Amino acid sequence: MSFRELLSNPSRRVFLKAGAAVGGGLIISFVLPSGLRAAQTEETDYTPNAYVRIDRQGRIFLTIQPVEMGQATYTSMPALIAEELEVDLDQVTIEHAPADDKRYANPMLGFQVTGGSTSVPGNWKPLREAGAAARILLVNAAAIKWAVEPASCRAERGRVLHPASGRQLSYGELVDTAVGLPMPDVIPLKAPKDFKLIGTPAPRTDAPGKVNGKAVFGIDVRPEGLKVAAIMLSPVVGGTLGEVDPAPAMAIKGVHTVLKSDNAVAVVADHMGAARKGLAALKPKWNEGANASVSSAQMIEAMKTASEQPGIQVRKEGDAQAALDSSAKRIDAVYQVPWLAHACLEPVNCTVHVRKDACELWLGIQVPARAKAVAAQLTGLPEEAVTVHNHLIGGGFGRRLETDFVSDAVKLAKQVDYPLKVIWSREEDTRHSTLRPYHYNHLSAALDEQGTPTAFTHKVTGGSILARWAPIVFKNGIDNDAVRDACGPYGFDNLLVHYVRHEPPAGIVPAFWRGVGHTQNGFMVEGMIDELAALSGTDPFEFRFPLLKEHPRAVNVLKSLKEKSGWSEPLHARQGRGLALTYCFSTYAAQVAQVSVDEAGNVKVERITTVVDCGIAINPDSVVAQIQGGTLFGLTAALFGDITFKDGKVEQGNFDSYRILRINETPKLDTFRIDSGESPGGLGEVSTVTVAPAVVNAIFAATGKRIRKLPIDSQTLRKV
């Protein structure tokens, strides 16, 4: 069971109330259900955590917890309201929710967080019900004004019409009457066949501001009196600041002061250029601490040793060991995935103004209430005295689920009396990022005499994210994120999954990374499935079908992909196609990668074909965009992603040493969608899971060489 599944058990009932908005108008407040919050059934328990507000001008505002970080949340969320409210998409304006865990909890995770591909699945029903409730109240208000039956009226594009008499009133003209009406006991929702917006391509509502420069990201804010700080943290992870002479920095024009904290030094200036020049002039001395001799090789060797321990049993079906021992053919393999940083286009930053009785933060973060709590703790202020202004995020991928950069910024801002914008350079962001953990996994699988799979075992070894980040769901020593997808969607009569928790040295922080456990175990499982198919002499598509009896949607995805990808078309020498499948975040997706490998071992990914069944697509264009973005993000990691340590320091810094995919390296991307009619699944992390195994399986088809460790090493693929 995944972290997402553990936390999501939302009530079927969505609690709604109608009332008067401040300044006039109608407000529909409602409680999004939560797996970590008891259902609120008593009037006194009612604490709304989302709002639809319609003012007297007919303008519609939606206050909701998901933040926009490139995933089109600010297009999909208003579409859910607009569909049932019978208005156009551009008539709904999104307003940022304040930082408040209780009032603005994610309906699937129980606290205020954007992540886990939960925004659409969690809000799919509640937002439509709120829109439908508002529409019913407005129609009833019009019927009262006209002394007619509500059934004789209909809503259309922000107005209520009475076709028989030709009368009509705008929503703005009806809100004051609607405020006094009781909430309907039954709130029917549209059937999918009646959707006008959902399922129809729509321009992204946040695109114009990003094109014309009006969009405000965290790094853009400029409160009055602002000064800018460039920060340097201890190069050795876990180290602390020793001594630093501020004089060289103070000699730089525009520099105001040098600030210190336990593990960092920062130069404050009028602008970033002066701050960075000042920082470069400093020669701080560091107390390197216990990690001064830590290297990647040492940590991997320690993980290898740990992986040989029995571990904790997570899942058992049949007798896998007996099936392995009696098998006709078997494979025993070690698969490894590296530490990975997030490399968001917008490096982490936080602007803080600490006053005697209040504190304000300006930033883009996936957990605004956690940022608020951190600031309150460090300043000694009550949480109600801390205000978080959450802005658009220039890339999250899990990095902004953390508050380490908030802590560093608040510690510095406490030392000055003006707003301080603390910006991490690309190098600092990479070298001090939280990291997707290294995994060193043992897998075994077996076939009988007929080539039918009989057993599958998977022992996962790595650090735990949940033990630190969400201890409430870290139970019995098992990190359910680390072991999710440990056998994929496949059904094996004999299955065994174990987990060995092995933490890196203090200061190296295992953290979420756009799919996390799925991206790690998906690579390994799909690699092993491909190995089994090759060992049995069976086509990789045909080999999977008998293992997917419980997943007919997966079978449909694979059948479509086999046709769309041109799987059977002939290829040249050292060209190959590879297949990978995933079921994650309630979405089924599969990819075929077509690659070529030259004689020097260089891999060129030529084409990636994706078929996805995410249920009902709110905006089909966003489905394609999410698949493309996730594919390129995951392909970058498969080809280049590797954070390594030497003498306790991260060796990578900017994009010259922590490579990302370049335009001329981008393959042709073809994306196809199956509309199963099911409720929407998550999408932002799906193709990040499948691309690495699809590519390495294609490399095997092209070269006969099996890759079990990422990133892909071209040296091992040279023709000899």
The description of the largest β-sheet is: 7 strands, mixed
Q: Unreliable runs, pLDDT <50, ≥5 residues?
A: 1-13, 34-46
The helix/strand class is: alpha+beta
* N-C termini distance: 45 Å
CATH classification class of the largest domain: Alpha Beta
The CATH topology of the largest domain? Aldehyde Oxidoreductase, domain 4
Query: CATH superfamily assignment of the largest domain?
Result: Aldehyde oxidase/xanthine dehydrogenase, molybdopterin binding domain
What do the pLDDT scores average to? 94
Calculate Rg over CA atoms: 27 Å
Number of domains: 3
Question: What oligomeric arrangement do these chains adopt?
Answer: single chain
Task: Quickly give the CATH architecture of the largest domain.
Answer: 2-Layer Sandwich
Overall shape: globular
- Helical fraction equals 25-40%
Task: List the strand order in the largest sheet.
Answer: 11-12-9-19-16-17-18
Beta content comes to: 15-25%
- The number of strands is 28
Give a concise summary.
InterPro entries: Ald_Oxase/Xan_DH_a/b, AldOxase/xan_DH_MoCoBD1, AldOxase/xan_DH_MoCoBD2, AldOxase/xan_DH_Mopterin-bd_sf, N-heterocyclic_Hydroxylase, OxRdtase_Mopterin-bd_su_IorB, TAT_signal. By secondary structure, the protein is α+β, with helices and mostly antiparallel strands.
